[in-house]
Amino acid sequence: MSPTPRERARVDTMQRILESGRQQLAEHGAAALSLRAVARDLGMVSSAIYRYVGSRDELLTALIIEGYRDLAEVAEAAVTGRAVPGRRFVALCEAVRRWAHDHPHQHALIFGSPVPGYRAPQDTVAEAARVHVAAIRLVETAWETGDLTDSPAPVIGQALRRQAQDLRAALDTTLPEPVLVRFVAAWTQVFGVISFDLFGQLVGSFEPGDQMCTYTFRTAARTIGFPD
């Protein structure tokens, strides 16, 4: 059944609200996001915008979900293909980095410092997990097909092992705890170098950051156990 004109108008207005919200993120940052400012930008009276977004936090949540969803689609596309798993992992990392450079303010919103006074609701969890799950499923498949080596790594302690067991159950993954821990260590390294590159921490040392990022992505792949 096709949407009615009223439904199409609502979707269009919501997209305009999100677009204005993204612009505010770019110009003023997440902490200064204001529904009144969005209403002014769209030529709406302040009371009218509440028909679409109930509060500043609700708009933040919509922007966060949008960012996670957009990144997840990029990540899920990157892990498909016929290349060997290690190359697909590096391709995934490169795709995440490109997305971050194309959407620096959304990257900062979802991976940067918490917004004062805002607590993300449960609605964000499913979309937030998708990019990480795409990477984990790639590692999981490589492990199951024997394409992942048992890379030497420090022995994990009991407390870390228990945390890994909880995560393993939550993700419903077949990865052994040591492999899952190696993945998490490597995956955080990937996002660390992306943030260093994006926010200028490599300026004056490894600039431009392309080669350092690719080196880090390949190092992360070896840490997980992908063969060169």
Short description:
By secondary structure, the chain is mainly α. It has helices at residues 5-28, 35-42, 46-49, 56-78, 85-102, 104-111, 125-144, 158-171, 177-198, 210-224. 68% of the residues lie in helices and 0% in strands.
Report on the structure:
With 228 residues, the protein is mainly α. It folds into two domains: 1-54, Arc Repressor Mutant, subunit A, CATH 1.10.10; 63-224, Tetracycline Repressor, domain 2, CATH 1.10.357.10. 68% of the residues lie in helices and 0% in strands. It has ten helices and no strands. It has helices spanning 5-28, 35-42, 46-49, 56-78, 85-102, 104-111, 125-144, 158-171, 177-198, 210-224. Helix 5 packs antiparallel against helix 7, helix 5 packs parallel to helix 9 and helix 8 (158-171) crosses helix 9 (177-198). It is elongated and about 60 Å long.
